Amino acid sequence: MCGIFGSLNIGIADQADEVFKGLFHRGPDEQGFVIKDNLELYHTRLAIQDLSKSGQQPMFHQHLSIVFNGEIYNHLELREKYNLYSESNSDTKTLLLLYELLGISMLEELDGMFAFALYDQRQHQLILARDRAGKKPLYVYNKGNALAFSSELNVLSQLFAPEVNYSSLAAYLYLGYHYRKATPYQGVTELQNGHYLKIDTQTTEQTLVKWFDIGACYLNKNKLSYADTLQELDARLQLVVKRRIETSDRDVGSFLSGGIDSGLITAIAAAHTHELKTFTVRVEGAYDESLFAEK
User: Fold this and answer.
1) Which of 3, 104, 190, 211 could disulfide-link to 23, CB 3.0 to 4.6 Å?
2) Are 95 and 79 in contact (CB under 8 A)?
3) Is 246 in the same domain as 126?
4) What element of type H or E holds 188?
């Protein structure tokens, strides 16, 4: 987990300490920022891949700059597929190389969880993007020709003091969640999952694009037999767990309850590493599953 922040047409440099303070819990290992034209990019890093200085952010490649939060589990496979080379084994570097080759269509190739801001200085274009499921957060503040974005809603609140959106709060209390892009503040929205926002940094014109539609996943008309379905499910489970283990440069752990799902994932993970650590929570009463987890 890392933290990202950026501002367009708003000078934040004299408040950089406030930005880093608000993002510190997301990335305590390193802090960095850069000013490019009328854009400022900030990053706090939790180092998981490429623990060397080569993994520091913001990261650059020719006319491209990026701040990235998340993990791309298939990035090494993508390097091999597209013959991409870098001395750094960071997935962030892979994104820069892949964008240079494919443009924003690279999103279709990614297996992972992510939120990032990528600046193309040559095209004067800023892209904010979020993964298919929206596992990594990204909030956007708009006021006039100024824009800011952050992994943390509180950072935007502290810096810009937006007014409370009472209708949004009322909907939250009724529904129990914020609907789609709504937030508790006026002028602040959440970039929805499976979307990217393209911003012209000269005109501030914005284009929102839905790049992933989960509904389309249900339109697959290929009918597999029961046996083939089980085989396909097993193959996919093996692959996704293997990718998550192999891309980490840190120790790998698993939350293990007494249930089938965590037990299955832990068993698959154990087949790919001899140093798997498991974590189980004990509670008093009938809901304690620690005895099953021990087995």
Assistant:
1) 3
2) no
3) no
4) strand 188-190
- Which backbone phi and psi does 68 adopt, to 5 degrees? -135, 140
Same structural domain for residues 185 and 55? yes
pLDDT digits (tens, 9 = 90+) for 220-256: 667 788 899 899 999 999 999 999 888 888 888 899 8
Residues 171, 277 within the same domain? no
- 3-state SS assignment for residue 85: coil
pLDDT for 98-157, tens place per residue? 999 999 999 999 999 999 999 999 999 999 999 999 999 999 999 999 999 999 999 999
Which amino acid is located at 58 in the chain?
A: P
**From CA 250, how far away is CA 51, in angstroms rounded?**
9
What does the alpha-carbon distance between residue 41 and residue 193 come to, in Å, rounded to a whole number? 22
Q: Is the same domain home to 173 and 111?
A: yes
Instruction: Look at residue 221 in the predicted model and tell me its pLDDT.
Output: 67
* Short-list 156, 79, 65, CA closest to 57: 65
> Global pTM?
0.92
Could you tell me the pLDDT band of residue 171, with boundaries at 50, 70 and 90?
A: very high
Asked whether residue 15 falls in the same domain as residue 44, the answer is yes
Q: Which domain, by its residues, includes 237?
A: 222-294
Residue 288 is predicted with a pLDDT of: 79
Sign of CA dihedral 210, 211, 215, 219: positive
Hey, what long-range contacts does 130-134 have (CB within 8 A, 24 or more apart)? 130/191, 130/192, 130/193, 130/194, 130/195, 130/196, 131/70, 131/193, 131/194, 132/193, 132/194, 132/212, 132/214, 133/193, 133/194, 134/192, 134/193, 134/194
Q: In which element (H, E) is residue 102 found? A: helix 91-102
CB atoms within 10 A of CB 198: 17
